[in-house]
Design brief:
The chain is built from seven helices and eleven strands. It is an alpha/beta fold. The protein has one domain: Spore Coat Polysaccharide Biosynthesis Protein SpsA, Chain A (Alpha-Beta Complex). The strands form three sheets. Strands 5-4-1-6-10-7-11 form a seven-stranded mixed beta sheet, with helices on both faces. A hairpin with a 2-residue loop joins strand 2 and strand 3. Helix 3 packs across helix 5. The longest helix has 14 residues. The relative contact order is 0.17.
Amino acid sequence: MKTVAIIPAAGSGVRMGTAKAKQFLELNDRPLLALTLDRFQQCTVIDAVILVVPLMDVEYCRTSIVNKFGLTKVVKIVPGGERRQDSVRLGIEATGGIYGLVMVHDGVRPFVDSDLIERALDACHENRAVITALPANDTVKEVDRDGFVKKTYDRQYVWLVQTPQVFRYEDLISAHKEALSRGWKEVTDDALLMEKMGIPVKVIPGSEKNIKITSPADLEQARCCIGALSNPDF
């Protein structure tokens, strides 16, 4: 089955506290988003990429990222929605239904590698929904609104979810349509929609290198790691 990667990058980056949205901040003289897209450009199992960005940044992304860095797999750049789930849905609709598998990956995870992408896709040939994640190293507690502990989870069953995530096209578009019609809001990842639809979600090991850059501390960590980009084992 052909595979399309949807890269949602329509956030405003409030937590970063910068005038420029986080996906456009630079590492190694390239915008974060360009680094992320290049990982999919170089991965042979990805047939096409659809980029979802704020409306006012569509032309900038076309000229200063996609064209400038030769990202030929980006077949469409579409305006995003109010929430992440809206942006992903708009990206799915833009595929035209010609791809059997849809991979969703955060635009601000620039250190994803081909091995992780390929492992996720391989797993989706046997499972309808696949997510990448890391097992929790710390104890996880649920607290109430007043800050008191309600429950402590057995951390051997707790995983910290990453992207990429991979789904069958028909499952994903149906789930997003259902979310829209039922008013499901604040869906933080597409796997939650699969859960709501009763579709089993397979978890495979992610990568500690695959960090999500959303805060100044994350950006500093990425700057410490950026030199490793030249290392083929990174």
